[in-house]
Amino acid sequence: MHIAMISYHTCPLASLEGKETGGMNVYVLELSRALARKGHHVDVYTRSHEANDVLVTTPESNLRVMHIPAGPQTQIPKQKLVHFIPEFVRSYKSFVQKEGIAYDIVHAHYYQSGLAALSIGRPFIMSFHTLGLMKNLVARDTLEREGASRIRSEFTLMKRARMIVAASESDRAYMEYLYDVPQDKIAMISPGIDTELFHPMEKKAARAHIQADPKHKIVLFVGRVEPLKGIDTLLYATKILKRQYPEETICLWIVGGDISEDAGRWPKTLRDLAKLQKTLSLSTSVRFVGRQKQTELPYFYNAADVVVMPSHYESFGMSALEAIGCGVPVITTNVTGISSLISDEYMSLITSVNNPLLLASQIQKVVTRAPAPNQTTRLISGHQWSTVADRILSVYRGVNTNI
Known about the structure:
Layout: E1 2-6, H1 23-37, E2 41-47, E3 56-60, E4 63-68, H2 85-99, E5 105-109, H3 111-120, E6 124-127, H4 132-138, H5 148-160, E7 163-166, H6 169-178, E8 186-188, H7 203-210, E9 217-222, H8 231-244, E10 250-255, H9 268-279, E11 286-288, H10 297-303, E12 306-309, H11 318-325, E13 330-333, E14 350-351, H12 356-368, H13 376-380, H14 385-399
Parallel strand pairs: 1-2, 1-5, 2-4, 5-6, 6-7, 7-8, 9-10, 9-12, 10-11, 12-13, 13-14
Antiparallel strand pairs: 3-4
Helix pairs in contact: 1-14, 2-3, 3-5, 7-10, 8-12
């Protein structure tokens, strides 16, 4: 099978290089790898972000990543990238014609890639990864809200896509009830995990690798640093823990965000969190680690006593799955997609949004009790990328009966 993956606004290789990424980058790369390892030919098309981008990169056999010209070869705010989609489509068509390629399936990731797929003129599969209506529901101010054009585009793509892949049962329900998508047009397929990378290791060695104090109780957040992630709630919970249990040396590590420049030039959300850290007198209890390469994340997970995902909205929550793969307890809000996969035995690890008192209580129970059997075996068994790829292939074959 010849498969075209469209990842217009972000390069899937960025996560390997330690650049600012999210779960979508990992998803596209790992799914493409799994499909390629099954003998299929996968070409990933992304916008060229830098002047030194190589047109064609081959991470491994049967897998290519094409950096296609579309606008200036610089980092551009995501909202402005829609203006360069026509150029991206022209570059795509020129490349495909020159190479003489005919694809069996086009799989678009995120709504901007879907808009490109509309103009490519082939039947396509959609994975939205996030939904504009849900992001607007939890937006803190007008700057965080998605524009009407994105919402209109999502409604159009829901209608025009041959099939839609939802990452969780909650996202499937939102698509059905908010976007009027028929049930039989949505395939609910959760993301996978690389168990060769994310697995339990000795905590002492992991802490030595990241230079963490072996005596600290480490609370870990991993992900994009943006308001909908609820990191401010986690800072409030840390303050509560410091007051309630002064004898405990609890330290919050925040992995994510660009801290390469002076703190005064950090992105706004990071600056706001740093101000809150100062307001709450948490100067020695919160550590901003910055973004990390994917290969470094297992050390952070394994060094932690608990990983917390306090999101206001999360279509799935891949960092939670990665932490569970490392055998580390995870506390997540009840609005994340992965929360529906957690069994009754672990319901004490589900928290509510914007409830720092409850979150502090749950963190305290986790970091002070004896280690309990983790969720690794049950949750991870059905989330190997090879298994996810097989499920995706079933969707492809249902759309294109000639393959």
